[in-house]
Amino acid sequence: MVTRAVLGHVAHPLVAVALMLEHGCEKTHNDYYRNTLTSRGLPPERYGWASVQADGGIESVTRRVEDWARTATDRLPPPHRSLSHAGTLRVAIAAAGTLTDDAALALARVASVLVSAGAAVVVPETGPLLASPAFCNALLRSAQVRATIGYAEAASSGFHVMQCPTTHWVETLTGMVATGVEIVLMYTGSRPVQGHRMVPVVQITADETAYRRYADDLDLVLGGEPAWWHTAMLDLLSRVASRSYEPKLYGQGNTDFQLTRGLLGVST
């Protein structure tokens, strides 16, 4: 799972340059990642490679990484924008706190519109989203839903349920981003959650208490007729994808990153 998550991030469509840094005596070392990238058709020369031990210690490897980063970024072509459509998007949808039936139905409609257009939609197997009969019955016509892809496994177009070894939000978020998603749509019925360092996390709510307390951190408050909530969400996703809107917590740097060690992982 850790290997999939690491590779999912370095091979992510939003990543232009990446460097693999090893200590030198770990189990999963740079040679392993180099061979794995090659087996997946990704040229190792696209990435930087550094080793604390092989490159002479912390100070030496720090200079090496900094020099590589300056050279690699200087070689990048200037970014450009192009028109596209909803079918090219990769979106993760998740929820935290209390999820009302109205909110669940709106999220199901968002997922349905995106998948029908040809997009990829990833939801976590844990959390209130798949525990909501309203969401599952509206989108999948079934209340019995199981994981369709592993933690951090690459997702193609269509609807996917990602396996989650734990219920830790940041571990779940890290795994979803590694699947290749470019935006995360997060409904909160309580408080905002941490965002991701690389991919914008859009945070929305229909809970008045949450809005009053966290208005400066939320991107959309759903009000009025619930039947139209999904259009407001889709409009917000469109603005984020077009870079005309930056999620509030993303801009504030309230982000986190953590790879899961699975159900049997321990700290010593």
Could you explain the architecture of this structure?
This protein is an alpha/beta fold. It has two domains: 17-74, no CATH class; 86-256, Rossmann fold (3-Layer(aba) Sandwich). Helices cover 36% and strands 16% of the residues. The protein is built from nine helices and ten strands. The protein has a six-stranded parallel sheet with strand order 5-4-3-6-8-9, sandwiched between helices. A two-stranded parallel sheet has the order 1-2. Helix 1 (2-10) crosses helix 6, helix 4 packs parallel to helix 5 (133-140) and helix 4 packs across helix 8 (229-241). The model has no long low-confidence stretch (mean pLDDT 90).
Cα gyration radius (Å): 20 Å
Unreliable segments (pLDDT under 50, ≥5 consecutive)?
none
Question: How would the global form be characterised?
Answer: globular
* Annotated CATH topology of the largest domain: Rossmann fold
The largest pleated sheet is described as:
6 strands, parallel
In helices, the fraction of residues equals: 25-40%
CATH C-level label of the largest domain: Alpha Beta
